[in-house]
Amino acid sequence: MANVLAIYLQGGNEVSYENWAFSLHKPKYQLPKHLGYPGNKTFRRAVGSDVYAITKTRDYYWWQGSSQDRLDSIQYYNRGDTRRLRSDQSTMRVYSNGNFTLWET
After folding, report:
1. Does any domain span residue 79?
2. DSSP letter string over 5-69?
3. Residues 102, 96: contact at Cβ < 8 Å?
4. Is residue 54 part of a domain?
5. With CB atoms counted within 10 Å of each terminal CB, which end of the chain scores lower, N or C?
């Protein structure tokens, strides 16, 4: 798993999409738009309990050049959403190295 996570975070094609735990082809593993806020009071309510989630610094930017039509159909979050996640009592930050953060509900 550590190898797959490293490839995911760094980017690469060494793992096929079928074996990729965080693949776009597995929608149930995708984070909700804006991390589930404001439609849910807590992140746990949006994703469930006993869930691990990864947020990445580069995810704050990749979507910014998208058209409004595209923004309506894609899942994304921004720095404001992660600030809210940090103060969310239902979620604990497990690990962070500056490039990605691991959360647990």
Report:
1. yes
2. HHHHHH--SSS-TTT-TT-TT-GGGSPPGGGGTTTSSSHHHHH-SS-EEEEEGGGGTTTTT--HH
3. yes
4. yes
5. N
Q: How would you class 103 by CB atoms within 10 Å of its CB: exposed for 0-12, middle for 13-18, buried for 19 or more?
A: buried
CB neighbour class for 82 (10 Å; exposed up to 12, middle 13-18, buried from 19): middle
Mean pLDDT, residues 7-12 = 59
pLDDT band at 91 (very low <50, low <70, confident <90, very high): very high
Whole-model pTM: value is: 0.68
* Distance of alpha carbon 28 from alpha carbon 70, whole angstroms: 20
User: Alpha carbon of 92 to those of 46, 49, 85: distances in Å?
Assistant: 15, 11, 9
* 16-71 confidence digits (pLDDT tens): 655 555 555 566 777 888 899 989 999 999 999 999 998 888 777 777 777 877 77
Residue 13 within a domain: no
